Amino acid sequence: MAAAAPAPSSASPQKPASPAPTRSGRSPRRRRVKWIIAAIVLVAIALGAFAYWRSESLYASTEDAYVNGNQAEVTALVAGTVQAVHVVDQQRVKEGDALFDIDPTNYQIALDRAQAQLAIARQQAGQEGAAVTSAEAVLAQRRAEAANARSNWARNQQLMKSGFLSPQGGEAARTAVQTAEAAVKAAEANVAQARSAAGSAGDENAAVQAASAAVKAAELDLARTHVTAPSSGIIANLSLRPGNAVQVGVPLFVVISDKEFWVDANFKETQLAEIHPGQKAEIRSDMYRDRVFHGTVQSLSGGSGAAFSLLPPQNATGNWVKVTQRVPVRVRIDDVDPQHPLRIGTTATVKVIKGGE
User: Fold this and answer.
1) Are 101 and 227 in contact (CB under 8 A)?
2) CA gap 37, 44 in Å, rounded
3) How far is CA 211 from CA 194, 201, 240, in A?
4) Residue 170 per-residue DSSP state
């Protein structure tokens, strides 16, 4: 058998283990980084606090603000069937642009009828004027006859005194005078009646004026079948279609005017002591975060928003918790920009410059 290999001697020398790396060289550097980070954080906090303090000292601000503008409700001033619609929803229009037409047939017939009545009224006024002329001519005739009867009566009186005329002849002459004077009074009454029935002459006649007013009303109704934009702006909430029946005074859609915009900013009641009409303001719409609009405070509401709500709070009953109320403040936007059109109902941030007028 082969001899076994000799076992390694336990006394043979072993390689010493490497010493563990020391951390003493890295600790100072890490501590310096921590101090630097802490210093940066403290500086950032200090700068933020300073910026907040400066903003609070210079501005009264709120994010509870909404863009608003004038809205003209378009209604029909005459009833009828829609014949044509000339606009679409969200279309921009100018003042006077055609919006829609109502079937004008009935109103054209009404205008023709009114014009015919005006012609009849003028004809009747002419006839009544002629009747006055005729009555005046009869009156002149009766006055001439009365004058002739009085002359005959005077002559007959002289003849009766001279004995050339019998008393019966003189009585007949006197009766003729009385008859002629009565005829004059009757003719004067006829003239007065004719003048009263005729009224003023020409277009000053009451019947003619009434008929003329009816013509103007019919013309106005006919013109109202063509509906135009009350102001420049954007069409909104339009669902009108040809064939729809419209009634007088019923809102059909809205034209949002682009001439004036404002922001209803709801400031806390604790901020109102520093806000008053005339102050300048900065407005930043959430639609255009990089665009700053400038405005002027117009008015402060007479009450909080809760006071005018449908169900105002009843703070005199039950448990009560004090909650800071908000009061609407209207801020007019002075530099409306067509390149950045505003939309009513969108949110905004308002900063009122304290003391800025």
Assistant:
1) yes
2) 10
3) 21, 15, 36
4) H
Q: What is the DSSP letter of 305?
A: T
Q: Which amino acid is at 8?
A: P
Instruction: Determine the Cα–Cα distance for residues 150 and 173; give it in Å rounded to an integer.
Output: 8
Q: Pick from 305, 340, 356: which is nearest to 64 by CA?
A: 305
Average pLDDT of adjacent 10-residue blocks, the chain of 357 residues = 44 49 62 81 78 66 93 94 94 94 95 91 71 72 74 66 62 72 75 64 73 93 95 92 94 91 94 91 92 93 85 76 90 91 92 78
Q: Which residues contact 199 (CB under 8 A, 6 or more apart)?
A: 125, 128, 205, 206, 207
Q: Is 333 exposed, middle or buried (0-12, 13-18, 19+ CB in 10 A)?
A: buried
DSSP state string for 6-67: PPPPTTS--PPPPPPPPSTTTHHHHHHHHHHHHHHHHHHHHHHHHHHHHHHHHEEEEEEEEE
